[in-house]
């Protein structure tokens, strides 16, 4: 038996009863150089989306000064963008399945280009908010369509690796925004910095037009001939099949904790809760984000060769992560000391990195490649909805005068609960 056949048989027996074996009638795409080229251009769009998403944090002080707003209103902007992202996940999945990734990515690029340009030239805070909403709109439709291109262009065994590399590219986009954008803001200035970002995004639009195609069998822009599945049936597919259910539980469990910290509460927790200096806290958050980037592609490559490891790995990791957050909230006398807290944050950061490797790979089980848009969007929404709820809940608890241990009870509850659902889904018997 070939290595590929053995891996598929192993996964069919151990991990899922429907890992697309016998589900897709069309032959698997061959992958190859053209697939990597198409994905490379598409993932460049995701890189830019994450660059723009993180741009507000880099320009926070300049934003306050330029628009004469306080910290309270400033903090609304990233949360508003995240809410737009969550609300548009299912529509993004519908566009991916009905319109195709190429056209949807072009729409997203147009929205981001206009949004960044508007933010650069905004005469008041209202226009700036409108610009951030447009950026959020473009951001919301990007990741799902890059993932769908991976499903359409690469063989099944490569999906975990390509999903992991997609997530890693997004992380690099976040990191890359800090140096260039900060230098541009302090050099040429606000307008030049953001108009330059808009120009780069417009150039990426031309690359997508020239290179990206929905189908490996056609020229750029050609879509397959499959009839789209009704929205109700697509959503039902996500909730009725075991693979997508495991993907939703996994994404909520392992992606949300560190995303909540990175969006808002990580730095304040390390300074006010743990007692690190501001410089040390900033260095720790940067190191955690950059130092775990290698985990996702490594795991994705391993899963592609031995898909049977997904279930035990996900079980052990979710259990360790849950135990870490329980430790944070029950530690006597206040938050744990710095070494313990940083250990939990390191595991959480690793979880955010590996989430694409496994969450969307689970979601592919039993779902044909041409119907992955809505399924992937529901999985993505599960993690980001959990993030929004936990982030807002922590803010309300802190506003009421409580400490970080109580503020982190919601994220601990969601992590433990989602982990329990994941383990139940993965190990239920019989599979079906």
Automatic annotation (TrEMBL):
Main subcellular localisation: membrane
CDD domains listed in its UniProt record: MFS (cd06174)
Keywords, in A-Z order: Membrane, Transmembrane, Transmembrane helix, Transport
Region (Disordered): 1-30
Coiled-coil zones: none
InterPro entries, alphabetized: MFS, MFS_dom, MFS_trans_sf
Cross-referenced PROSITE patterns: MFS
Keyword Nucleus: no
Transmembrane segments: 35-52, 72-92, 104-122, 128-147, 159-178, 190-213, 248-267, 279-302, 314-334, 340-362, 374-398, 404-427
Location of this chain's protein in the cell: Cell membrane
Membrane topology: Multi-pass membrane protein
GO molecular function, one term: transmembrane transporter activity
Domain Major facilitator superfamily (MFS) profile: 38-432
Gene Ontology cellular component list: plasma membrane
Segment forming the signal sequence: none
Name of this chain's protein: Cyanate permease
Organism field: Haloactinospora alba
Lineage of producing organism: Bacteria, Bacillati, Actinomycetota, Actinomycetes, Streptosporangiales
């Amino acid at each position: 038996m070939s290595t590929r056949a053995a891996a598929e048989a192993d996964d069919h027996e151990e991990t899922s009863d429907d890992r697309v074996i016998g589900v897709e009638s069309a032959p698997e795409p061959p992958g190859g150089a053209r697939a990597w080229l198409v994905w490379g251009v598409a993932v460049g769009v995701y890189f830019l989306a994450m660059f723009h998403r993180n741009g507000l944090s880099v320009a926070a002080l300049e934003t306050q000064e330029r628009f004469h707003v306080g910290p309270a209103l400033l903090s609304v902007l990233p949360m508003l963008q995240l809410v737009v992202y969550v609300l548009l996940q299912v529509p993004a999945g519908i566009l991916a399945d009905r319109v195709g990734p190429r056209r949807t990515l072009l729409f997203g690029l147009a929205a981001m280009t206009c949004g960044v340009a508007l933010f650069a030239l905004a005469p008041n805070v209202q226009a700036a908010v409108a610009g951030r909403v447009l950026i959020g709109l473009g951001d919301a439709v990007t990741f799902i369509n890059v993932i769908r291109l991976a499903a359409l262009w690469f063989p099944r065994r490569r999906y975990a690796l390509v999903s992991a590399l997609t997530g890693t590219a997004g992380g690099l986009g976040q990191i890359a925004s800090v140096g260039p954008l900060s230098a541009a803001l302090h050099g040429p200035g606000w307008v030049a910095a953001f108009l330059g970002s808009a120009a780069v995004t417009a150039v990426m639009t031309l690359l997508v037009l020239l290179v990206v195609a929905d189908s490996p069998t056609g020229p750029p822009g050609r879509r397959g001939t499959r009839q789209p599945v009704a929205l109700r049936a697509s959503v039902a597919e996500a909730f009725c099949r075991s693979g997508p259910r495991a993907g939703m539980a996994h994404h909520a469990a392992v992606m949300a904790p560190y995303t909540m910290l990175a969006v808002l509460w990580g730095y304040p927790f390390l300074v006010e809760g743990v007692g690190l200096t501001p410089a040390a806290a900033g260095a720790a958050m940067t190191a955690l984000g950059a130092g775990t980037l290698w985990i996702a592609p490594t795991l994705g490559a391993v899963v592609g060769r031995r898909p049977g490891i997904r279930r035990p790995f996900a079980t052990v990791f979710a259990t360790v992560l849950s135990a870490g957050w329980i430790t944070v909230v029950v530690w006597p006398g206040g938050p744990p000391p710095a070494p313990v807290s940083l250990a939990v944050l390191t595991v959480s950061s690793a979880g955010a990195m590996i989430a694409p490797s496994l969450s969307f790979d689970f979601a592919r089980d039993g779902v044909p490649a041409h119907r992955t848009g809505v399924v992937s969007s529901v999985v993505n929404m599960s993690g980001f909805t959990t993030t929004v709820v936990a982030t807002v809940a922590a803010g309300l608890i802190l506003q009421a005068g409580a400490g970080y241990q109580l503020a982190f009870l919601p994220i601990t509850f969601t992590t433990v609960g989602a982990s329990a659902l994941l383990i139940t889904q993965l190990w239920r018997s019989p599979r079906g």
